[in-house]
Amino acid sequence: MTPPAIPFPYVVLLTILEPLAALNGALIAHFTPAAYLNYFTPFPTTLQRTFNTTYQPLASQVAACYLLFTFNEAVVLRLTDDVRVWKGIVLGILICDLGHLWATYEALQAGLGGGFWSLGGWRFEDWVNTGMILGPGLVRILFLLEVGFRKTTGLSGGRGRRLKGR
Fold first, then answer.
1. For a 10 Å CB count at each end of the chain, is N or C smaller?
2. E strands, the chain, in order
3. Distance of alpha carbon 99 from alpha carbon 95, whole angstroms
4. How far apart are CA 166 and CA 154, in angstroms?
């Protein structure tokens, strides 16, 4: 029950692509936590080479959060035509994106001689990780600003009322 004012690209990203990416992240974090750490840590550590199993509950908690994102986007968004619910979920994930971006900043600051802004020292994984935060994060901001939304007479455009009809 997608709200009719929401453009199709947002629907594809938010209800198909992102849930798949979040599910993938959950599986990696839970089943291969050493690989997960490698994706987010810019320098090799003993922890990555020989993962200490006492950290498994922490990796499983991260996986559980990713499963929550998967469920919210793949299921909850499909259950409602209320754009306020869509915006609430998107805003919540954007807040989480900011936390991920801060953690990436901290990891790159600690792991690179020149810090976060030493782009020449970034690994492929660092570029992918940061791109997977910034790209969808920008799309979430555009969504919250209703960029590309259809403006139909009599509809709120998502500013507090449920959208009916096309």
1. C
2. none
3. 7
4. 11
Write out pLDDT tens, residues 138-149: 999 999 999 999
Compute the distance between CA of residue 26 and CA of residue 112 in angstroms, rounded to an integer. 27
Q: Low-confidence residues of the chain, pLDDT below 50?
A: 46, 153-155, 157-158, 161-166
Distance CA 159, CA 149 (A): 12
What local confidence, expressed as pLDDT, does residue 152 receive?
A: 61
Q: Which residues contact 24 (CB under 8 A, 6 or more apart)?
A: none
Q: CA distances (Å), 143 to each of 5, 40, 48, 106, in order?
A: 11, 27, 37, 28
DSSP secondary structure string, 118-151? -GGG--HHHHHHHHHHHHHHHHHHHHHTTTT---
Q: How far is CA 64 from its chain centroid?
A: 14
